[in-house]
Amino acid sequence: MLTITPIPAFSDNYIWCLADTESGKALIVDPGQAEPVLDYLNANNLTLDTILITHHHPDHTGGVAKLQASCGPHRIAGPAASPFTNITEALSSGDELDWQGVVFKVLAVPGHTLDHIAYYSSTRIEGQGVLFCGDTLFACGCGRLFEGTPVQMLESMSAIRELPDNTAVYCAHEYTLANLRFARHWLPADKPLATFEAECQAQRDQGRPTVPVTLGDEKRRNPFLRWDDPAVMDVASQYGEAHGLNTRSAAGVFAAVRHGKDHF
């Protein structure tokens, strides 16, 4: 049986563990810290054999060296064109990676960083397809554009938006309530956002993660996936006029939403 479990790290990171409970093998996604991963592996009698990296930021790669030293040689897959050099399997858009019969397709999703990739599998794990998307897509948000452009990020989000609705989105941070505060400010009349905010607050009050979320829900809720939604476009137009932004294209609408979040 395959399971996916969040391993909390730092103040708000999630390191994801995909485990095959029959073989005892584990795949880890974006280990920014080694210690919580080692603790989880030991507590659950799992053997780490594969690490997936989505992008080079230290809070996603900082634990790799210690995991290598502690767990022995194993596969470290990540973006081919990356400042992070400790990769044994360099991946580019369209490549496939097989782990325990789960085949991941690699998507190039630049924007947050230029090397950013995501891993998608249609294999149903816990009833849904799987997307490990790092810091590209969050619940009701998206990654800040540290290296890429709005056009690049729009193309990346478009590629994600084309995936099936029944895809579980495993993002790398617990940013949901902060994202919802902005989304509710941008779209105050959006009732599904209000309902989701209440649900997420209840989850956090119980110490539970708000992710994964379903991509179909994100397509309906997330303003960063709704650049062609009249409600989002209308607010973007007003915001653009007030801030000197051109919102006459999809990229312009997306850029206005991102600018609004950056300055919220």
SSE blueprint and pairings:
Blueprint: E1 2-9, E2 13-20, E3 25-29, H1 35-43, E4 47-52, H2 58-61, H3 64-71, E5 75-79, E6 89-91, E7 96-99, E8 102-108, E9 117-125, E10 128-134, E11 137-138, E12 141-142, H4 150-161, E13 167-171, H5 176-186, H6 191-205, E14 213-214, H7 215-221, H8 230-243, H9 250-262
Parallel strand pairs: 3-4, 4-5, 5-6, 10-13
Antiparallel strand pairs: 1-2, 2-3, 7-8, 8-9, 9-10, 11-12, 13-14
Helix pairs in contact: 5-6, 8-9
Specify the biggest β-sheet.
Answer: 6 strands, mixed
Mean pLDDT: 97
- Unreliable residue runs: none
The strand order across the widest sheet is 1-2-3-4-5-6
The share of residues in helices is 25-40%
How far do the termini sit from each other?
A: 43 Å
- Portion in strands: 25-35%
Helix count equals 9
**In total, how many beta strands?**
14
Backbone CA Rg: 18 Å
Sheet/helix structural class: alpha/beta
- H/E series: EEEHEHHEEEEEEEEHEHHEHHH
Shape: globular
